[in-house]
């Protein structure tokens, strides 16, 4: 999984960088997604491999706080990128003639920068909120990596402020992004249904299939985790869903877009044949 995720996202980035034919807004957003997935794989999978291959079961508090910072930062950035990709599909379908003039490279760069800054400001306090605590409970994590909620529960201090802030960041970031994505697709459906030609209608919807698959890969495990009750549920199921939510998107996103994009699939085949 690690090798496929690293190679897949690296190949996507290499093709988008070297092929002028794909210097379009959709592929620029796809490169943002690939960078995020690549960073997420590098942040999490080495720790998991260390546990399973070398029985390395300990991590210092500072390393743990750094890891949880980057995990939450990158997951929230991915959520923002998925919203930008939904916005891109809306512009492409709603106003195709002005698509290139609306989503210029400077505007895309500004959108990406604003998204990263917003997420960084939200996530930056998390490790500092945890660093000030004393830890007196059994310091055993359920997952093979550090998460804010798990580390917070190991403290022997009052965590109400931390809990409220953690919930606020999730609602303000992923909750807002998912709402905007939903509204984007409502507008896309409204536009598509107004198209008289049945063939053109299907063609327009077909351009959204890759993005919809990526949304399902990203949000389905997270929604499933939030719906599982904390007590009385299977710990194995929680751990499995935790792995899926973190490891599956970086693995599957390059595959989904390579299969759906004929241009990308042809360039990838040519690259490996060479």
Blueprint (SSEs and pairs):
Layout lengths: L1 H17 L6 H30 L6 H34 L4 H4 L2 H19 L1 H7 L16 H6 L6 H34 L4 H9 L2 H19 L7 H26 L1 H12 L1
Helix pairs in contact: 1-2, 1-11, 2-3, 2-11, 3-5, 3-6, 3-8, 3-10, 8-9, 10-11, 11-12
Defining key terms:
mainly alpha, Rhopdopsin 7-helix transmembrane proteins, 79% helix, globular, sensory transduction, transducer, cell membrane, Olfactory receptor, transmembrane
Q: Describe it for me?
A:
The chain has twelve helices and no strands. With about 270 residues, the chain is mainly α. The chain has one domain: Up-down Bundle (Rhopdopsin 7-helix transmembrane proteins), CATH 1.20.1070.10. The longest helix has about 35 residues, at about 60-95. It is globular and about 65 Å long. One of its GO terms (molecular function) is G protein-coupled receptor activity. Keywords: Cell membrane, G-protein coupled receptor, Membrane, Olfaction, Receptor, Sensory transduction, Transducer, Transmembrane, Transmembrane helix. It is found in: Cell membrane; Membrane. Its main location: membrane.
């Amino acid at each position: 999984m690690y090798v496929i995720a690293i190679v897949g996202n690296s190949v996507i980035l290499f093709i988008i960088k070297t092929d002028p034919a794909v210097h379009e807004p959709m592929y620029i957003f796809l490169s943002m997604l690939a960078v995020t997935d690549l960073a997420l794989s590098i942040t999490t999978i080495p720790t998991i491999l260390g546990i399973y291959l070398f029985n390395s079961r300990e991590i210092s508090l500072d390393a743990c706080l750094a890891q949880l910072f980057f995990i939450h930062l990158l997951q929230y950035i991915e959520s923002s990128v998925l919203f930008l990709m939904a916005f891109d599909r809306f512009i492409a379908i709603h106003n195709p003639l002005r698509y290139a003039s609306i989503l210029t490279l400077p505007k895309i760069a500004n959108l990406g920068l604003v998204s990263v800054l917003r997420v960084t400001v939200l996530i930056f306090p998390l490790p500092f909120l945890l660093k000030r605590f004393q830890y007196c409970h059994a310091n055993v994590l359920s997952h093979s990596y550090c998460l804010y909620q798990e580390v917070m529960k190991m403290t022997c201090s009052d965590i109400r402020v931390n809990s409220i802030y953690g919930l606020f960041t999730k609602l303000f970031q992923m909750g807002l992004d998912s709402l905007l994505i939903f509204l984007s697709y409502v507008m896309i459906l409204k536009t598509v249904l107004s198209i008289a030609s049945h063939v053109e209608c299907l063609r327009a919807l077909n351009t959204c299939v890759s993005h919809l698959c990526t949304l399902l890969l990203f949000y389905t495990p997270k929604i499933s985790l939030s719906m599982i009750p904390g007590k009385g549920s299977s710990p194995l199921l929680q751990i499995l869903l935790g792995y899926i939510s973190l490891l599956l998107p970086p693995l599957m996103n390059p595959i989904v877009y390579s299969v759906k994009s004929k241009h990308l699939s042809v360039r990838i085949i040519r690259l490996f044949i060479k």
